[in-house]
Design goal:
Rossmann fold; 21% strand; 5-stranded parallel beta sheet; 256 residues; 2 domains; single chain; alpha/beta; 6-stranded mixed beta sheet
Amino acid sequence: MNPERETKVKSILITQPEPEPGRNVYEDFVNRYKLTMDFRAFIHIEPLIAREIRKQKINFLDYTAVIFNSRNAVDYFFQMAQEMKVEMPPETKYFSINESVSNYVQKYIVPRKRKMFTAKGTEKDFFTLFKNHKKEKFLFPCSDIRKPSLPDFFTGNGYDFTECIIYRTVSSDLSDLEEVFYDIIVFFSPADIKSLYDNFPGFKQNNTRIAGFGNSTQAAITEHNLILDITAPAPGIPSMVAALEDYVSRSNKGSN
């Protein structure tokens, strides 16, 4: 925390897509402090093409179980199967990280009670789903950027497990922001930081305050020799909106 950098905040850029109407968790905070807040996704995802899947030497029909940890993985897996003219057998088992993802799988298959397994949203609970399925051949459709904990669990416990990169995370074109400046920029992933430098290799922080959510994001910020002014989560500050309010309440004190 550097009090010298706690100057008045008027504008904030959130490096994520704009929330749907009625789901903007920042709205009350922005209105109370009379701030300008813009949303702009710094990254987006692109599906691989069939040739790129084949280069990974993966045949979907070689696997008896599929693991999904996101809706994107569900969409791109079944779209790729259709493109490759592959129909998954009805006895295929599907393991989902949470109920939302599990329900989404049902867009593409006829649900069978004994073939769908759903966790409650935590990794620890997710891992317990697999205890009685050690004989399955697992396929994990995923992004080129993913946490190592899930593959580490499977390889460390002797499962027959294969990752399939089915979509990639790429930097968005931000050229229209070149001459636009914000008092605070909020980052949520290392890929956001990569996009910043892909677009603006000579980026200078100057008096722009930088906020980072999560350990990996914060590490990427410091690795680029940027000043990390705002962190979340932190003790007593569970969310980014809480972290921003904590900061702005000090920097804008007496100016409302």
